[in-house]
Design a protein that fits this description.
Low-confidence stretches of chain B: 138-142
Number of helices of chain B: 11
CATH architecture of chain B: Orthogonal Bundle
Structural class of chain B: mainly alpha
Largest sheet of chain B: none
Mean pLDDT of chain A: 72
Mean pLDDT of chain B: 86
Distance between the termini of chain B: 54 Å
Radius of gyration of chain A: 26 Å
Helix content of chain A: 55-70%
Radius of gyration of chain B: 18 Å
CATH topology of chain B: Hypothetical protein af1432
Low-confidence stretches of chain A: 1-16, 50-64, 160-195, 366-371
Helix content of chain B: over 70%
Oligomer: heterodimer
Strand content of chain A: under 5%
Number of strands of chain A: 3
Number of strands of chain B: 0
Shape of chain A: elongated
Largest interface: A-B, 44 and 36 residues
Chain lengths: 413, 203
């Protein structure tokens, strides 16, 4: 499978555009090769693809981008479609074995076999179609069918895992696909030029590969920074273990249910993971105190949302999220803290986090380690009833409704 | 086109990444400083001194960047220390166990960094950033990098300067030269501080 897309980060749009333009430029150079050089050039390119791990993985986003499809189409046009199918099927299969070996791991055989079968099937179908068409169109047809099958397969997998909306992914798949098709059309339609063009093609390709790898890293860095902050918080307050992950997962689902869109929902997830980060600066002896808190102690705890915003404001990437963290204890009736904002002044993500955080605090994970010291956990129906009771005063009724839909609809396990 | 790509890959992206990692580390450091206000501003001071010493000692750009990041990350392990121990009780009243917990903060911080792929390379530097000033059995000259030795020296110097004054801090460096601290680095730092103290006196 030349391109497998499970979820594309918004940050990728720019990288895709540059990637596409670069790919077109590379292929336009590529097409100026004289006929005897085309086959070795294609093979050299494929060798590079295999050796240098041209599939670019983004671990966090589940995205893989391969640059090989246009060149596979060129192999089909120039050498023969069976060769394109064979190379396109076995190169990624071989690569996954080598990658697993180099990382001292093992290939998951059922997944590997399923990928192999699907890749062989989609490429054979695409090659059969391409074979029936005139030479000028065959490369484009091959690439478009292979791309479409890959994208549909990826979307099917993703939909099975959790529905994230097809629009954004579809549009980006089409963008990458269209740019690749333009490149393929160029590559398959001309055979003249100088052998030196090989170098001129390989260098930009390697740079593109590197650029995609580096371009994908910001999201990973955000996740890792959040991971480090969570580690610190869990060192300071071990009870928070599990609470942050649960709140983040539920908050993301509620955001999607409220129609905020995948990108916003992701940001809500991040804010929810970090909503209690200010508790690093709170005395754990007070936070875990089994008795009733004094006013002074409660004031100390109430500072945690402002502390959290202050910590996150150090990074531009958390600028939006820090505002939401600041407001996650505000109430609809204006009696919350730290600012005492009312209804419309409270950002929706903060209202979502408030509801989910309260629910998780009431219910807990059921494990003794994560229970708060000052009360026994409630059951789910009692906690939902409590949220209902506080809707309109403490919580946003619309958010409470959406949250109940999510919980009762079984969208959270 | 190729030139633009090369610029993006080799110049722009690395710079952007460096900026992002620095911001992440400042975020982590600010969390520690909020938990323990006595350290507020201390990390940044240590970063500046370490970088200056590193430049004077002839470190490469890459080493300087690693030194800066390690300086921001050096005290992450402090968040394992109970709030009350550092904020509410003087060091003289700490129990033996509390001293042990404090002394383990470099190891604790390094353990956290090892769990974060983009910061993993800083773990060995942070692990030894107090050298054997807090562990008499370890020999920093054998087990730590130049970055660790710089952090160890700067931390020792800044602590003595803040608590006991510039003169005693310089005496401490001279006394521990080649023992607690790397002798060549001490020479560089003494030269640096001599210039600064002379400037201060003339002003």
């Amino acid at each position: 499978m030349a391109t497998r897309i499970q979820r594309i980060s918004p940050a990728l749009s720019g990288a895709h555009a540059v990637f596409g333009v670069g790919l077109v430029a590379s292929c336009l150079l590529f097409v100026s090769l004289p006929a005897p050089w085309t086959v070795p050039a294609c093979l050299a390119m494929l060798l590079y693809l295999i050796v240098d791990w041209t599939i670019v993985p983004s671990r966090r986003e589940g995205l893989n981008v391969a640059l090989g499809l246009p060149f596979l189409a060129a192999i089909g046009v120039e050498v023969g479609w069976p060769w394109a199918v064979i190379l396109g099927t076995f190169a990624p299969a071989l690569r996954s074995w080598i990658r697993a070996w180099s990382m001292r791991g093992a290939v998951h055989l059922p997944t590997w076999s399923a990928n192999l079968g699907l890749t062989a099937g989609s490429l054979t179908g695409a090659a059969t179609l391409a074979h029936q068409l005139p030479a000028g169109m065959s490369g484009a047809a091959f690439a478009s069918v292979a791309m479409a099958v890959s994208a549909l397969w990826a979307l099917a997998i993703q939909k099975q895992q959790v529905f994230r909306g097809l629009s954004g992914i579809g549009v980006r798949s089409l963008t990458v696909g269209t740019l690749s098709l333009v490149a393929v059309s160029g590559a398959a339609s001309s055979h003249s030029g100088s052998p030196l063009v090989l170098i001129a093609v390989l260098v930009p390709l390697m740079l593109l590969h590197r650029m995609l790898v580096v371009g994908l890293s910001p999201r990973d860095e955000v996740m890792e920074t959040m991971g480090a902050l969570m580690l610190m918080l869990q060192r300071a307050h071990p009870y928070s273990h599990g609470h942050l992950e649960r709140v983040a997962k539920m908050a993301e689902e509620v955001a999607l249910k409220l129609g905020l869109g995948p990108k916003m929902a992701r940001q809500v997830h991040d804010a929810a993971i970090l909503h209690d980060i200010g508790k690093i600066a709170v005395n754990e002896a007070i936070l875990d105190k089994p008795a009733k808190l004094t006013e002074e102690e409660f004031d100390h705890i109430k500072r945690h949302s402002a502390y959290g915003a202050e910590i996150l404001s150090q990074s531009r990437r958390f600028a939006v999220v820090s505002g939401w963290v600041l407001c996650h204890h505000e109430r609809m009736d204006g009696r919350g803290y730290p600012e005492g904002l009312d209804g419309s002044q409270i950002p929706i993500p903060s209202r979502i986090i408030a509801v989910v955080d309260a629910f998780d605090a009431m219910v807990g994970s059921g494990t003794k380690a994560s229970r708060r010291t000052y009360r026994e956990p409630m059951d789910v129906s009692a906690a939902l009833a409590e949220l209902d009771r506080c809707a309109g005063t403490q919580f946003d009724p619309q958010v409470v409704r959406a949250f109940k839909d999510v919980v009762l609809g079984g969208e959270i396990v | 086109m190729t030139a633009l790509l090369a610029f993006a890959v080799f110049v722009q992206y690395p710079r952007e990444r460096e900026r992002r990692v620095t911001e992440s580390l400042k975020t982590l450091a600010s969390a520690v400083e909020l938990r323990f206000p006595r350290y507020r501003g201390g990390t940044e001071t240590c970063v500046q001194w370490s970088l200056e010493l590193g430049r004077h000692a002839g470190l490469s750009r890459k080493q300087l960047k690693r030194l800066e990041w390690a300086a921001w990350a050096q005290d992450l392990g402090l968040c394992s220390i109970p709030y009350g121990q550092l904020n509410e009780r003087p060091i003289e009243t700490w129990s033996k166990l509390e001293h042990t917990v404090y002394r383990e903060h470099p190891e604790s911080g390094a353990a956290m960094l090892e769990l974060v792929p983009m910061l993993r390379e800083l773990a060995p530097i942070v692990r030894h950033h107090h050298g054997h000033a807090l562990d008499d059995e370890a020999d920093p000259r054998e087990s730590s990098s130049i970055e660790s030795r710089i952090l160890c020296l700067v931390n020792g110097y800044l602590w003595h300067r803040q608590e006991l004054g510039e003169g005693i801090a310089r005496d401490h460096l001279i006394e521990q030269k080649g023992r607690l601290y790397d002798a060549s680095l001490v020479n560089v730092l003494l030269e640096m501080t001599h210039g600064k103290s002379t400037d201060a006196q003339s002003n």
